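Message: Study each token:
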Amino acid sequence: MYMPIQSNNLRLIIRTAFFIASKSIQRGSLTVKFVTVFILLLTFLNLIVVGGLLVGITEDVGVKVKDSLTGDIFIEPAKEYNYIQNTGDIFSLLNGVPNVHYSPRLTSGVSIEYEYKNVTGGKNPSRVSAVIAGLEPILETRVTNIDQRVIAGSFLDENWDSIVLGSSLVDGYISSKTGSEASLGHVLIGDKVRIRFSNNNLYEFTVIGILNSKSSTVDQRAFINQKILRQLLSKQGNDYSEIAVVTGGDISSTSLIKELRGISRGDRNDIKSSDEAIPSAVGDLKKAFRLIGNIVSVTALLVGVITIFVIIYVNASSRRRYLGILKAQGISAPTLILSYVFQIIFYVAVGVILGLIALFVFLQPYFMKNPISLPMADGQLLLTSLYVSIRVVVLFISSIISAFIPAWLIIRQNTLDAILGR
């Protein structure tokens, strides 16, 4: 008989608390209700938006690297080798897998000179050290999107004397790029540049395009036809510095990586997924941005929780006499405390619903159409169901605690003192 009594009492407490809460909400001050909901709405948006933007920026940094450089799988030689080993076996494997495309590249460190014909009096021309990448244009366009990232001129063609320069090597094409010693200056389409190779070969190229991928590695490179680079470096046909692979169809990049590692005959090649191939500086940037997002979210949550605490405390203090009368009539303290918890649950629910509408109807579509343009990424508001759900739960729990404590502090006072206002 003991358990049913307890169950009935619990149901009575919940029903009574819900009734008191609903009446308090209906009869409460419209200004207080509006302010409470507005504070919870802003708290919810602060929890979501800043972190979502920072996560969106960091994720886009990785996307830019993947789309312009690494693809789904990135193959480089191990540290003790200059070029990728067993390229014939690698190409045979990749050619036998449906919906897989790859772009083999040859790279070399070079010095690029500009306006060398106009230099007089023993002065040096504009010069930068860079990596030059020899591409097979058709294969490259199947793997990366750098042909779509050309902001002036056009992408590589079959002409041997054509060159495309990354935006970090020149001035005047992107707003974030300023003049510096490591720049060729304002190079125009159709101008000539001279490449000095490590074997002291000199060759003159015509600039046909400037590209801006927002990946620092790519934007610090120059691109020419692979055939002429191979000839100028006197390299064999199977010497490659890197291979970018994109997968499709039924095969996953993970399973393909295992197969590629299996034919590499030990650790002679460094085969990575796109996430593993991201430069360490980008990984550190992502960690830093996530930390900043978490700090901002915690700060916003604390401000919101403290504000709710003050609102509930002031509300309960101003109604001490009313609460004392209810206690004198037999309404238990747990019931009255629970009524305040129900009130804050209602306000949080309204604030969260309004916040979700603002997020998914207005803010996220806006940032999709108008991303925050940064030198290394296009920032969008990245929202996943797990990301949003965790923050909704945290907001509910924090708000319930912030409502419970002031209600308990006021309602636990002596009933007679509360009625007499002492």
